[in-house]
Write a structure and sequence with these properties.
With 241 residues, the protein is an alpha/beta fold. 42% of the residues lie in helices and 14% in strands.
């Protein structure tokens, strides 16, 4: 097989995990049961990433807007986060997965923040792929914070306005150590990014499925990857250029 004939695998896949609440409602279950079921899907997609060689997986786990949900649901989500980290840490260690997080982590409840940092520290030397959780994350807030740091450097004389480039902005984002996503997958059939990686996903391929996140299967993930492999990514250029 020629190198050009080899299947193209995205280096970085980002996922908007949507539909947990609707999945639960249609089954007459509490919303938290939907989130609990969705946590099981994470294990499936992580395994597919390992199987096919995807280096980076980023999951939109809790947005800045999610604080507007009922207090009991938010508390339940934070409890599920702690449980996920506790239960999955041995598996992440066994598989060599490094845990990462993006977002305003300082605003998370102390117990959740402590569990997250502990798991990140425990896995920081792992080299079998990176799982990034977007927690208390909002892309507009992220870009605003990045611009503020650049403005401060300009005011201090450290940086000249004419030297500001897209790379300058990228280097101030939460994702400065990550490659931009090649593929963004959204479940539940909504066609929007919902304030997720707006800068980073400028040239990402999008793949939307009506499937709710708890039902998102290994087969469907592989279907999305197969579709990605056949797309012609030109980054604004001409096909024949």
């Amino acid at each position: 097989m020629n190198e050009s004939d080899e299947p193209r695998i995205p280096r970085h896949v980002a996922m908007i995990m949507d539909g947990n609440g609707r999945w639960a409602r249609e089954r007459g279950l509490p919303r938290l049961d939907g989130h609990r079921a969705g946590a099981e899907t994470v294990e499936r997609v992580v395994q597919v990433c390992r199987d096919v060689g995807i280096e980076y997986l980023t999951l939109y786990a809790f947005s800045t807007e999610n604080w507007n949900r009922p207090r009991a649901e938010v508390q339940g989500l934070m409890g599920l986060l702690r449980a996920f980290l506790h239960e999955r840490l041995p598996e992440m260690q066994r598989k060599g997965i490094r845990l990462n997080a993006i977002g305003d982590i300082e605003r998370l409840p102390a117990l959740a923040r402590r569990a997250l940092r502990s798991a990140m520290t425990a896995t920081e030397r792992n080299t079998g792929g990176m799982l990034t959780l977007a927690l208390n994350y909002g892309s507009r807030d992220e870009i605003t914070a990045a611009v503020r740091t650049i403005a401060e450097d300009v005011r201090a004389g450290v940086l000249a306005p004419e030297d500001i480039t897209p790379d300058t902005i990228s280097s101030r984002l939460y994702t400065c150590d990550l490659p931009d996503p090649d593929l963004v997958i959204r479940t539940s059939g909504e066609y929007r990014l919902s304030n997720f990686l707006l800068w980073q996903a400028s040239y990402a391929e999008l793949w939307v499925t009506p499937t709710y996140w708890p039902d998102f299967s290994e087969d469907e993930f592989r279907q999305a990857l197969a579709d990605f492999a056949h797309r012609d990514r030109r980054y604004g250029g001409h096909k024949d250029a």
